């Protein structure tokens, strides 16, 4: 998990929720509401997913945009900004997203839990989606 100051409280809520469900969590910060920069937390979290140290990631910031942009700079990361449960499920099913990003200032804690559940319960469908995901270039590739 990774968040900035705007999403600190939501991160703590989602973290507790997942711990109650039996998930092991690696918290990359932030650890307070003190102003900070989302890339400082996004990059180490992305590296952990890239290296296989974490199965997937959940990132959040005020709008979700900065966190998503930072995460998607990493080779092998497909971070999806989701504000509805349906988007969380589709991010996994159709895009094989390995990072869920939540817009903390635009969703409630209850909505976040539903989005997280939808994301976690979904799996990549493969098939026609394999072709599409394969066309997402990774660092150094030219399309």
List the total number of helices.
Answer: 6
Task: Give the strand line-up of the largest sheet.
Answer: 1-2-4-3
N-to-C span: 31 Å
CATH superfamily: Sugar-phosphate isomerase, RpiB/LacA/LacB
Structural class: alpha/beta
Radius of gyration: 14 Å
| CATH level-two architecture | 3-Layer(aba) Sandwich
CATH fold type: Ribose 5-phosphate Isomerase B, Chain: A
General shape: globular
Q: Which strand-content bin applies to the residues?
A: 5-15%
Spans of at least 5 consecutive residues whose pLDDT stays below 50 are none
Order of helices and strands: EHHEHEHEHH
What count of domains describes the coordinates?
Answer: 1
The biggest beta sheet reads: 4 strands, parallel
Oligomeric assembly: single chain
CATH class call = Alpha Beta
Helix content: 40-55%
Give the rounded overall mean pLDDT.
94
């Amino acid at each position: 998990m990774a968040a900035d100051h705007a999403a600190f409280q939501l991160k703590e809520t989602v973290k507790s929720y997942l711990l109650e469900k039996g998930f092991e969590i690696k918290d990359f910060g932030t650890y307070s509401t003190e102003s900070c920069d989302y890339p400082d937390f996004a990059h180490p979290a992305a590296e952990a997913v890239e290296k296989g140290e974490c199965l997937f990631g959940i990132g959040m910031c005020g709008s979700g945009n900065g966190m998503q942009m930072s995460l998607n700079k990493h080779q092998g990361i497909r971070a999806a900004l989701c504000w509805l449960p349906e988007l969380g499920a589709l991010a996994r099913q159709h895009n094989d997203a390995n990072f869920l990003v939540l817009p903390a200032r635009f969703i409630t804690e209850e909505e976040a839990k539903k989005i997280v559940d939808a994301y976690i319960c979904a799996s990549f469908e493969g098939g026609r989606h394999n072709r599409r995901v394969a066309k997402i270039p990774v660092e150094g590739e030219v399309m």
